[in-house]
């Protein structure tokens, strides 16, 4: 592999307002572990991304470093505050979006579903292995015909003696074809949305990895067909009884997406700043040009705003005061700004901006996915709009 002409990946610890200057020592330690991991993983990720291969060993490494739990308390592991979990998500996403999505799927969705709604036996069986990266989990809600309107899901679960029989299809399921257990959301015979633990080696569970992606290429999403999949009644998550329970998981992960967007934005801003100090044109560094300084100042102001959103909402979350629409606002703001900053950075790097070796193009493309998942911008807008007006614009 040829050495890149520019070193734009050097972390600069950008924190213009000193937002993170006085965070507690345990939170800073979690961030340090994530920085260690990112330093190990980043040199590998362009290759995995280009080949569209999932680096399972890196998922296990995150488990070894206690980076997967996303703030969920797991016996035997040091707990992370909401701020620590956010900083981990930010730092890993600063390195790579596919790896950040591993945390979102493994901890934010699968682990959280079992922790919130599982029986004691289910928690004992799955939380430790998932948090340590010994097993991979998936969260199957979205269907081929139901994304934003996932409340209308059509997958069914019928009781047959001592078993539930599941039928239906799911799409865009991270780890759904390469994992060990999938949390499947389906309607029972009473029409209620319930959660079920489905081991991926069950007969009738068929998962096909989705190919042709131009975003998040280093994590596999699957299209799943459930064809008379039989699971024991013990695999029902007893605490999940309605779609409102499902939404509780999604709301919790929405703030994680805002932190992930902050990580992407940090990466592209720092790449642009590094590049501006190294690249020379017309006999002087780009950093000496007024237009370049204006762009960097704008990027920094938006990045600082993103940091403030995340930091304040982590404090609300820790105090038990975070409202769902506040998490929606953070995602709405941060993913939009991350997209904008990535586009500016790509332009600032010129032709070098489309080279994987300079990382910006990978972040730009990966941000397209996080802008969509856990609720599109349109859905977040309507949630916020309903909250401030008292009027629902949903169909």
Can you walk through the features of this model?
This protein starts with 24 loop residues before the first helix and ends in a 6-residue tail after the last helix. It has a 4-stranded antiparallel sheet, with helices on one face. Strands 1-4-5 form a 3-stranded mixed sheet, with helices on one face. The chain is of the alpha+beta class and 395 residues long.
Gist of the model:
The chain has helices at residues 25-51, 56-64, 82-95, 97-117, 120-131, 243-278, 290-318, 324-348, 360-372, 377-389; strands at residues 137-140, 156-160, 163-174, 181-187, 193-199, 205-209, 221-232, 280-281, 284-285. By secondary structure, the chain is α+β, with helices and mostly antiparallel strands.
Give unreliable regions as ranges. none
Main β-sheet, spatial strand arrangement: 2-3-7-6
- Tell me the major beta sheet: 4 strands, antiparallel
Structural class: alpha+beta
What is the radius of gyration computed over CA atoms, rounded to a whole number of angstroms?
A: 21 Å
Q: What does the average pLDDT come to?
A: 94
Please tally the helical runs, counting DSSP H or I stretches of 4 or more residues: 10
Distance from first to last alpha carbon: 53 Å
N-to-C series of helices and strands = HHHHHEEEEEEEHEEHHHH
Strand content: 5-15%
Helix content: 40-55%
- The geometry reads as globular
Total strand segments:
9
């Amino acid at each position: 592999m040829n050495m890149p002409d520019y070193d734009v990946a050097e972390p600069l610890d950008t924190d213009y307002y000193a937002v993170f200057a006085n965070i507690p020592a345990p939170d800073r330690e979690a961030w340090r572990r994530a920085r260690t991991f990112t330093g190990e993983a980043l040199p590998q990720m362009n290759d995995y991304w280009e080949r569209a291969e999932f680096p399972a060993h890196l998922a296990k490494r995150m488990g070894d470093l206690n980076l997967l739990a996303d703030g969920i308390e797991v016996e035997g592991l040091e707990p992370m505050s909401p701020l620590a979990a956010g900083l981990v998500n930010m730092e890993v996403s600063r390195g790579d979006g596919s790896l950040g999505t591993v945390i979102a799927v493994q901890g934010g969705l699968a682990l959280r579903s079992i922790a919130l709604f599982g029986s004691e036996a289910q928690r004992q069986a799955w939380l430790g292995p998932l948090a340590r990266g010994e097993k991979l989990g998936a969260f199957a809600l979205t269907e081929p015909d139901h994304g934003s309107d996932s409340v209308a899901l059509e997958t069914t679960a019928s009781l047959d003696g001592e078993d539930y029989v599941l039928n239906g299809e799911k799409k865009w399921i991270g780890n759904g074809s390469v994992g060990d257990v999938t949390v499947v959301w389906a309607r029972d015979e009473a029409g209620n949305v319930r959660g079920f633990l489905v081991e991926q080696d069950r007969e009738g569970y068929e998962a096909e990895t989705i190919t042709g992606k131009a975003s998040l290429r280093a994590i596999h999403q699957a299209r799943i067909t459930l064809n008379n999949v039989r699971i024991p009644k013990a695999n029902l998550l007893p605490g999940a009884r309605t779609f409102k329970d499902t939404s509780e998981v999604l709301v919790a992960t929405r703030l994680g997406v805002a932190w992930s967007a902050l990580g992407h934005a940090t990466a592209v801003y720092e790449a642009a700043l590094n590049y501006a100090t190294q690249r020379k044109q017309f006999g002087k560094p780009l950093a000496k040009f007024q237009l370049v300084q204006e762009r960097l100042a704008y990027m920094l102001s938006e990045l600082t705003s993103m940091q403030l959103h995340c930091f304040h909402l982590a404090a609300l979350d820790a105090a038990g005061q975070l409202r769902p629409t506040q998490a929606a606002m953070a995602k709405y703001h941060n993913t939009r700004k991350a997209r904008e900053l990535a586009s500016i950075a790509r332009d600032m790097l010129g032709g070098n901006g489309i080279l994987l070796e300079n990382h910006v193009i990978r972040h730009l493309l990966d941000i397209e996915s996080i802008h969509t998942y856990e609720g599109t911008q349109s859905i977040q807008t309507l949630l916020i709009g309903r909250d401030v007006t008292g009027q629902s614009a949903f169909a």
